[in-house]
Amino acid sequence: MNTIEEKLLKKLDYYIEATKFEDIYNSHPNYPSLYATTDTYTQLGIENAALRINKEQINELPQYFIAQLTPKQQGKLVLVTKKGDSIIYENDDLKKNKLSIASFLEEWNGIVVLAEKNTATSNDTTKILPITLLSFFLITVILLPYLAKGIFSWSLLCYQLVAIIGSIIGYFVIEKELSAKINNFRDAICNLGQKKNCETVLDSSYGVLPGNISLKLLPISYFITNLLFLAINPSYHLVGLLSILGIPLVLYSIYLQSQKIKAWCTFCLLTASLMLLNTTIYLLSTHFSFAIYPEYTALLTYIFTGVLSYQIFQKIHTSTKENLLTKQENYVYKRFKNNPSLFISTTSPLSHSEGFEKLNLIELGDANAPTKLTLFLSPFCGHCHKAFAAAIDILNQLNKTPISITIGFNVNISNKDNPGVDILQAFMNIYLTTPEKIKDALSAWHIARTPIEEWKKEWVRPIKNKDFINYSLQNQYNWCQENNFNYTPAKVINGNKFPKEYSLNDIKYLLEGLHEKYTNSIVNLQSTEAS
């Protein structure tokens, strides 16, 4: 977790999947902001509040909270930890600042975001499997050559340790392109000194060798190759000899950084140092020799392993970069799409809105809510099943923003051959006699997909007011025809056609904003009528 919003959740014992948090937070139309933070917490079902309090009440605040600094501090949001008489806060770069409470009060504008601590038992198991697999892999590749030969060698162990350290450094070289997360350790190492900047070196035009070989991928490919080769064929003589042959590449890298690019890459220098360390180990070992014979088979194995490693990492690197770019573009698109003003602007007026209030629709939500969604369904329409399920999902949302969801039917009941007419009559009868059961009846049909005979046995009851029910159903059908709704599901929101560019699932992310927009519209309309 790398944002202060995510880190606060972890401190409060919430273990939210990172991608789930990012999808909601990064796609919020007001990202980044206090509103985006509180709305994301609400979407995740976490009790929270954004408050302005008197600064004297700081002792009453919990140990962890998010605070907003004064305009002099650019109004930044920071994660605050109360520790005795001191305050430790960190910004989105996760750089910590420790100061007295009095000093903090001067920088704080009094606005906080508070979240309830998670009291449910929860364990963060998301990283256990990768760590277990990695540990198993390292133990296997280290022990395999000793088990195969039945002897122990300090030189071999040194080569293995250098290969492991080099693989880690090689990962740091390419990490920034593989993740949108901030790694403070990596950034700190990369920016040691005025002339040290990894990205300047790695992204330069000199970072590609003939044959389109990327310098970025060489460190991790080289050291992983050594690690695998030593596990397959513990011939560290060949690894040491090849490290000597790699010295020209080390010198070329140093020349580029010092003379051409005029900047230094710390991880590149560490890689060069490890290659020189490999050379030193080899020169000091008792197996020192410039002769490759009789290791031609081992050489071919090494070359094959090296080429395969590079190709694999190149594929991973390219696909991960593309996925990350696509993900970031999707966040921008979602922020644009999840703007309630844009949504409202894409709705279109109905052809004939008259008579809508008299359709005797089935009410499932809060009838007084400012956001009003209506679905016109058909009992045997597969898309209607999905639409109803999405509507129920909106009603069951974690943030409990009120919404009115009404259900009508776009079916010609004069067609006596339509077996769905009995289903619709049963729906209306249930709603008129036992309205508290209508949600279960609709769910049993549209979501559980209960077989028709089984459903009828459970839900069909004698109908006393059949004429009124038939009148209501026919009236709903006629109204749909007047508005050219020759399909199901037909969707209406606040007296307008639901935009085709959106799905019902989008409403979950728009609901907070729509609630505010439609509430303001009602207030403005009432003010106009009053004047």
TrEMBL record:
Positions of transmembrane segments: 128-148, 154-174, 213-232, 238-256, 263-284, 296-313
Domain Vitamin K epoxide reductase: 152-289
Gene Ontology CC terms, in alphabetical order: membrane
Entry superkingdom: Bacteria
Membrane topology of the entry: Multi-pass membrane protein
Stored Gene3D superfamilies: Cysteine proteinases, Glutaredoxin, VKOR domain
Presence of keyword Transmembrane helix: yes
InterPro entries associated with the record: Peptidase_C39, Thioredoxin-like_sf, VKOR, VKOR_sf
Alphabetical GO biological process terms: proteolysis
GO MF: ATP binding; oxidoreductase activity; peptidase activity; quinone binding
Name of one Pfam family that matches: Peptidase_C39
Keywords assigned by UniProt, alphabetized: Disulfide bond, Membrane, Oxidoreductase, Quinone, Redox-active center, Transmembrane, Transmembrane helix
Classification via SUPFAM superfamilies: Thioredoxin-like (SSF52833)
Cell location: Membrane
Family of the protein in this entry: Belongs to the VKOR family.
Protein name: Vitamin K epoxide reductase domain-containing protein
Taxonomic source organism: Neptunitalea chrysea
